[in-house]
């Protein structure tokens, strides 16, 4: 609550401090969103790699056509997710330098 000794300069100073805190919080929220996206991408990449490793462990002459096709799909999905993560890392670096 303002008292009678509060000046316009005091109010402007407080407003500036509030705006600065808001900017810091918005930036931190953005960082946390990037971190969450990165964690989710890494988890999905890990899950797909595990599935791929199981298929790769099978002898080639014992794999069905579906298993061979699934290997290809997994490699493509992993590649796509790695590219997505690379773009995310680039965005984080750009934001950090801003």
SSE map:
Elements: H1 8-56, H2 65-97
Helix pairs in contact: 1-2
Top keywords for this entry?
mainly alpha; 84% helix; single chain
Provide structural commentary.
The chain is mostly helical. It has a domain of 65 residues. 84% of the residues lie in helices and 0% in strands. It has two helices and no strands. Pfam families: bMERB_dom. InterPro entries: BMERB, bMERB_dom. It comes from Chloebia gouldiae (Gouldian finch).
Summarize this, please?
The protein has helices at 8-56, 65-97. The chain has 98 residues and is mainly alpha-helical.
Q: Into which percent range does the helicity of residues fall?
A: over 70%
- Describe the global form: rod-shaped
Distance between the termini: 36 Å
Nearest-integer average pLDDT: 93
Secondary-structure element order, N to C: HH
What would you report as the Rg, rounded to the nearest angstrom? Answer: 25 Å
Q: Return residue spans where pLDDT drops below 50 for at least 5 consecutive residues.
A: none
Number of strands: 0
Separate helix tally:
2
Strand fraction equals: under 5%
Largest sheet: none
Structural category: mainly alpha
């Amino acid at each position: 609550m303002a008292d009678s000794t509060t000046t316009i300069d005091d109010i402007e100073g407080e407003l500036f401090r509030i705006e600065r805190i808001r900017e810091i919080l918005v930036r931190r929220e953005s960082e946390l969103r990037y971190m969450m996206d990165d964690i989710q991408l890494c988890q999905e990449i890990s899950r797909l790699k595990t599935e791929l490793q199981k298929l790769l462990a099978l002898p080639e002459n014992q794999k069905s056509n579906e298993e061979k096709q699934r290997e290809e799909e997994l490699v493509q999905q992993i590649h796509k997710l790695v590219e997505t993560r690379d773009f995310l890392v680039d965005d984080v670096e750009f934001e950090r330098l801003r």
